[in-house]
Amino acid sequence: MSSIITRFAPSPTGYLHIGGARTALFNWLFARHFGGTFRLRIEDTDRQRSTDDAIEKIFEGMRWLGLDWDGDVVHQFARAPLHAAQAQRLIAEDKAYYCYCTPEELTAMREDAKAKGLPPRYNGYWRDRDPAEAPAGVKPTVRLKAPREGETVIGDLVQGEVRFPNTELDDMILLRSDGTPTYMLSVVVDDHDMNITHVIRGDDHLTNTARQTQLYLALGWDVPAFAHIPLIHGPDGAKLSKRHGALGVDAYRDLGYLPEAMRNYLLRLGWSHGDDETISTEQAIEWFGLESVGRSPARFDFAKLDNLNGHYLRVADNTRLAGLVAADLAKAGIEVDATGLDRIAKAMDGLKARAKTLVQLTDSARFLVSKRPLALDARAEKILSVDGKDKLAALRAAVADLDSFSAAQIEGAARAMAEAAGAKLGDFAQPLRAALSGSNVSPPIFEVAEILGRVESLGRIDDALGR
């Protein structure tokens, strides 16, 4: 398969939500798999709700996820005259017509259909009437002369063959009464002009696709291949909402997820490759195909996302993670200098072993760059009771003048003291942990002491002893 061109076409009326991010990912992967082209189009025809800030948020979300697009971004609103010109062509070819129904008449039409137990839709009142009969002062819409008999068939690459009786599809509006194009017209013209070969989107667009297929045929254009992917549901099976995790991509970034973890997780929401759960981006590009997209809604699960993110944290480069942690600390008002950054990087193996998110990683690294005297939490205070302080004081005396202030030598001194006292290593290690980290949990504490260095470690011990 060659010359594949896909697109992601969000409306900038809010953030890049998680469902949109997955749609973007699937289009990106499909294009990259076949060596094709992935385009980005901003569908900004809703001028009241479209904002520059929302457009920038979409760009930020795409860049953070690592979904690069090809060519310039297309802004739909700028192409409105081209959309309108195609509607006028259809009128000239007697494939569309002016409709002069007032809003009140359309409401009465829908109410009449409901009363007869029929779906509420336009009845074609102006389809074959002479425009000369038009009432004065009414600005018309332009409607497509949709076929009234037979079926519109979609050979969907995920859903299979989907058939729509044409009696269920009315004459849709192409141009509003103010002359502006509707979404349905704009999408078809843009996809044609951008040479889109495959439209991959949520299955809530299936009815739109039937209507758009009628428009493609009326315009005499090739119909692109369609693939409608199931929507994402919450863990309870209900449609995904904010309480489930329907947040903007930027919110997941702020919650401490890595972009590679999000890509992997979104990939597995509705697509599978055997029993593989952890799939690199390189593997995803190599393996991705629409034949492996399921037809059932995927369920969003924060626990699975956390576990996956924990995996990616553990295999991530320590220097990169240290930079991310330092940036998060800076947002919290804690500036990290070169010494602090070096400490975080050296401690990273121990820090990331327990963390599931960057937020947790940042919280656990904070003590490394905290100013003296260190604040102690309640557990640390308890550890540094009279007995704990006595052991800490003895340990300080033993390590203060070590030839090498290394983890191995510090641990050796603590172990020798514990054996001499008939105690456990932890009886000496825990007071040291409380003094150096301000808590009862930390990366391996003898490594922490080495990372902090002789001067800082002894200073923190003295602060704890002097409390």
TrEMBL record:
Organism taxonomic ancestry: Bacteria, Pseudomonadati, Pseudomonadota, Alphaproteobacteria, Rhodospirillales
Short sequence motif named 'HIGH' region, residue ranges: 10-20
Organism: Zavarzinia aquatilis
Record EC number: 6.1.1.17
Protein location: Cytoplasm
Gene symbol of the encoding locus: gltX
UniProt keywords, alphabetically: Aminoacyl-tRNA synthetase, ATP-binding, Cytoplasm, Ligase, Nucleotide-binding, Protein biosynthesis
CDD domains: GluRS_core (cd00808)
Record bears the keyword Protein biosynthesis: yes
Binding-site positions, ATP: K242
An annotated Gene Ontology molecular function: glutamate-tRNA ligase activity
GO cellular component: cytosol
The name this protein goes by in its record: Glutamate--tRNA ligase
Biological processes per GO annotation: glutamyl-tRNA aminoacylation
Enzyme class label: ligase
Top-level taxon: Bacteria
Function: Catalyzes the attachment of glutamate to tRNA(Glu) in a two-step reaction: glutamate is first activated by ATP to form Glu-AMP and then transferred to the acceptor end of tRNA(Glu).
UniProt catalytic activity: tRNA(Glu) + L-glutamate + ATP = L-glutamyl-tRNA(Glu) + AMP + diphosphate
Glutamyl/glutaminyl-tRNA synthetase class Ib catalytic domain: residues covered: 4-306
PROSITE patterns: AA_TRNA_LIGASE_I
Family to which this protein belongs: Belongs to the class-I aminoacyl-tRNA synthetase family. Glutamate--tRNA ligase type 1 subfamily.
Listed InterPro entries: aa-tRNA-synth_I_cd-bd (IPR045462), aa-tRNA-synth_I_codon-bd_sub2 (IPR020751), aa-tRNA-synth_I_CS (IPR001412), aa_tRNA-synth_I_cd-bd_sf (IPR008925), Glu-tRNA-ligase_bac/mito (IPR004527), Glu/Gln-tRNA-synth (IPR000924), Glu/Gln-tRNA-synth_Ib_cat-dom (IPR020058), GluQ/Sye (IPR049940)
Chief localization: cytoplasm
